[in-house]
């Protein structure tokens, strides 16, 4: 059993015997934690383990129910609502904290604008903003409106905004969940620079390879309780996972039940072109099949299906659903054809985070719950009860706001939401992004069970093991073209990467339909 962290003379920020409750629900139980000058201390745990609650206490966004926060070894009461930044404690939130209608440079200096002679010094702010973005090897124009940025670019702006502060303690909650490998590499280079300058870094991530490579120490939480604090050199990735979930993870992926070779084709796309994103893609999806879509970021995977669903213009190509030529113009039309889409941006586009679970669950299938022009709330509640049981959605109470749920429980709620339309075709885009290993395992088993019921699944994913472990066949994209459809023994990492990098595959893929 690991010993609790002892008070260190070089500890910058710490909590001792920390308890935190929301009403009658306790979420942290006597937690001890500290971060030292010049180290990266990783916080590990499943979704709902208490990591985000802990760092919100450490940064002054939440008050402890009991226990102590120590700064430089002295008990303090941190100022609320982000004012702890004045003490050098900077938090990069898991949820974006950006003013969408303002520019990148305006966001970076919001509340601490540079002035000259009583007027805004826009030239100085733009230059400083460009300088910080450049250190992250990020080519975003400081004058760009934040609402026009991609999810990964918004994350880079959040990181740049934090780096522009004079931080003594930098807290990063899932900063790399939406970043490419190169973007993550640039971030970690800056973290090394900050550590060398004596900055203390607290890092939350579900990417165990990142933690193994970059962290100095690891603290594991489980169900709101401290489990262990160890030097990273003392732990393997498997060891970290075992501490997080309290069990072995030998059955991460369910067995693959191959679909019938004569199963009917439920979706056929031929010669798909999406302006600015996809030049040509053709594929087929069979009943009961999990068809993986792999490729590097920007390869066009998501764009193909956004165009098929009417979320962006379809430049050319034909689409057949159940053998009938179809051109969908909206998600509502897709739902009518029993096609469901789980967006990778669950908080921005998938769920209404400021509302409760019940209206979120039934929104897509709302017509089913209308009686005499009124919403039948009793029927909605029955549907919620069923979804909570079916998908193991965990919330402190049924009236909690969706934004208060962990990322894994939000994803399970989103899965429950799309299943309310009883879809035959389900398109899931990065379904386990930012989710702990235990919840990943649950979601993999949910998806496999749906395929076993005869549902047809498209799995778009950036995680190679996910694609290999779940897919019956794998379509691979490179630079806007579908370069190959792999099956059997060809579904392995090196072969997929050859197609993803454009080293193999027919660039004119009209003959790649299975």
How would you explain this protein's 3D organization?
- With 514 residues, the protein is of the alpha/beta class.
- It folds into three domains: 235 residues, Rossmann fold (3-Layer(aba) Sandwich), CATH 3.40.50; 180 residues, 3-Layer(aba) Sandwich (Rossmann fold); 75 residues, no CATH class.
- 30% of the residues lie in helices and 26% in strands.
- The chain has 16 helices and 24 strands.
- The protein has a six-stranded mixed beta sheet with strand order 6-9-10-3-11-12, with helices on both faces.
- Helix 12 packs across helix 13.
- The chain starts with 10 loop residues before the first strand and ends in a 14-residue tail after the last helix.
Please state the second-level CATH architecture of the largest domain: 3-Layer(aba) Sandwich
Largest sheet: 6 strands, mixed
- Cα-based radius of gyration, to the nearest Å: 24 Å
Binned strand content:
25-35%
| Mass-distribution shape | globular
What's the multimeric state?
Answer: single chain
- Average per-residue pLDDT, rounded, comes to 87
CATH H level, superfamily name of the largest domain? P-loop containing nucleotide triphosphate hydrolases
**Count of spatially separate domains:** 3
CATH topology tier name of the largest domain:
Rossmann fold
- The low-pLDDT segments are 507-514
Distance between the termini: 53 Å
Report the total helices. 16
Strand order of the largest sheet: 6-9-10-3-11-12
